[in-house]
Amino acid sequence: MSEEKKKKFLSEDLTVVLYKMKEWCEHEEYFETCGLIGLADNGEYSIKECRNLSQDPTNTFILDPLDYLFFSEEFKLLCIYHSHPKGDTEPSQMDVKASENACVPFLIYSNEEKKCELYNPRTSEVDSDLIEKIKKLV
Ligand SMILES: [Zn+2]
């Protein structure tokens, strides 16, 4: 993924941020798009598209750990998003494992179904009120 493709966006409105996510996922037809959604100290929501380092980006994603590191230094991480260009919003076994290991909710967008779903791990480091807020909006 080229540098100019790594997009960033900030808004006070979480709905707008989620809309951006859908737009960016839709933009990539063949590969899984991935990124981070977070909250800034001033109350703004932030979204950043990250590099998908997977050898098989059609079916899986591996988020660039450096993107993760820099983002979480600047923002409180709310969730990791990625797209399923083919298939539904159901998290794969790998998605479940990764979300559980990271203790971070996964937001999955299906390009086919044009909708997204939040997978919330058993142990989450993210504020449950904010998770509920995202759940209501997707
Ligand atoms: Zn997935």
Description:
With 138 residues, the chain is α+β, with helices and mostly antiparallel strands. It has a single domain, classed as 3-Layer(aba) Sandwich (Cytidine Deaminase, domain 2). Strands 1-3-2-4-5-6 form a 6-stranded mixed sheet, sandwiched between helices. It binds zinc ion. The site of zinc ion (ZN) has 6 residues, from strand 4.
Question: Could you write a compact summary of the structure shown?
Answer:
This protein is of the alpha+beta class. Helices cover 32% and strands 25% of the residues. It has one domain (3-137): 3-Layer(aba) Sandwich (Cytidine Deaminase, domain 2), CATH 3.40.140.
Largest sheet: 6 strands, mixed
The Cα radius of gyration reads: 13 Å
Q: What is the string of helix and strand elements?
A: EHEEHEHEEH
Quote the CATH topology: Cytidine Deaminase, domain 2
Number of strands: 6
Question: What is the molecular shape?
Answer: globular
- Strand % is 25-35%
The number of helices is 4
Bound molecules: zinc ion
Helical amount: 25-40%
Mean pLDDT across residues: 93
What is the second-level CATH architecture? Answer: 3-Layer(aba) Sandwich
